[in-house]
Amino acid sequence: MSSILNTVFCSKLSRFHNWNNNKDANRLRVPTHSVSTPPTLSLTRRRLTVRAADTDTNEVKSKAPDKAPAGGGSSFNQLLGIKGAAQETNKWKIRLQLTKPVTWPPLVWGVVCGAAASGNFHWNLEDVAKSVLCMIMSGPCLTGYTQTLNDWYDREIDAINEPYRPIPSGAISENEVISQIWLLLLGGLGIAGILDVWAGHDTPTLFYLALGGSLLSYIYSAPPLKLKQNGWIGNFALGASYISLPWWAGQALFGTLTPDIIVLTLLYSIAGLGIAIVNDFKSIEGDKALGLQSLPVAFGAETAKWICVGAIDITQLSVAGYLLGAGKPYYALALVALIVPQVVFQFQYFLKDPVKYDVKYQASAQPFLVLGLLVTALATSH
User: Where does the record place the region Disordered (predicted)?
Assistant: First the structure.
C-alpha cells in the first residue's frame, strides 16, 4: 500500500476526446463533435484543476452537468455520497462524502450474518460490543478506505461522468485525500488486531481478513492490475468484498470459519457481481473514453441488464436449492419468498431504464436480498 504515497503530483490526461473552453472550473463539458487538441489535467499540491482545450462553443453540448445539481442538490445525498449531492465546502462533510456512507450497510449486515451463522453470538454486552466494533471496522473504516481509494484512482473517469464530485472539482486537495486513505486503512487494520486479541485468537484471523480485503480493494482500483477494468473479475471481486468478507469476519469473531461456509458465501458473491453491474450503467460514457471493459460497455446496456438480474436471481435460487437439499425446506421457502419481490422490482424499475431507476431499484429490491442473506446464515447455524 505504500505506493499510494508515491502518487505523482503532475499527470496528463490524454484519453479524453473533447472539451469545452469553459471558465467555470467546477463544470466539465463533453462535446458532441471532436476537436483536435486534447485537454490536460494538472494536479498542484493543494488543488486539482482541469484546463480544457479551445474549441467552438457553438458546437459543444454538455452531457455530464445534466447529472449534477444546478445549485439545488440535496445535502442529504451529499452526506450519503450518492449522485444528486449538493456542492459543499465543509471539509469534514466532503471527507464523509468520499467514504460513501450509503455503501456501509451491506458490510454491517454481513457482519450480522456471520455472527448469526456462527451459532455462538449471545445478546450480552460483550458480544454486542465486539460486533459493533467489527461493524465499524468493516463499514466506516475499510469500506470508507475502499471508496476513497476508488474515487482517487477514478478521478479521470469522474471528470467525465461526475465532474462535480469532490476530487475532480478541486473541493478537496490531493494531500487531504491521501491522508484520509491511510488513516482509514490503518484504523481498520488496528481494529482487526484488537478484535483478534479480544476473541483470544491464536492466529490473527480478523487481521488477515482485513489485510486481504484491503489488498483486494487496492488492486481493484489501482494500476497496474486495476481489476475493475474487467467487468467479470472486477465485479466478482466487488461482490465478494461486500458479501463474503464481512460474513467471514463476523463468523470468525464468534466461531469457526469452515470451508463449506467459504464456498457458500463465494457462491452468494455472484449475486454481489450482479449488484455491482447496476452501478456500471451510469459510468458507460467515462468507461468507454478510458477503455474500461465494464459489462455494459462490453455487451451493450440491453444485454448487460439481463446478465445483471440473472446473476442476482439465479444465485439466490441456487442457494435455495442447496438449503432444500440440506433438509431445510422452510428456510428454502423463505428465501424464495424474498426473491419474488426482487424480480417484481427488476421489471418495474431496472429493466425499464437501468440508468434512470438505478437508485430506486436498489432501494426497493436490495432489502429483500440482504434479508435472504440472514435467512441463509440462520439456516447454516442450525
Answer: 55-74
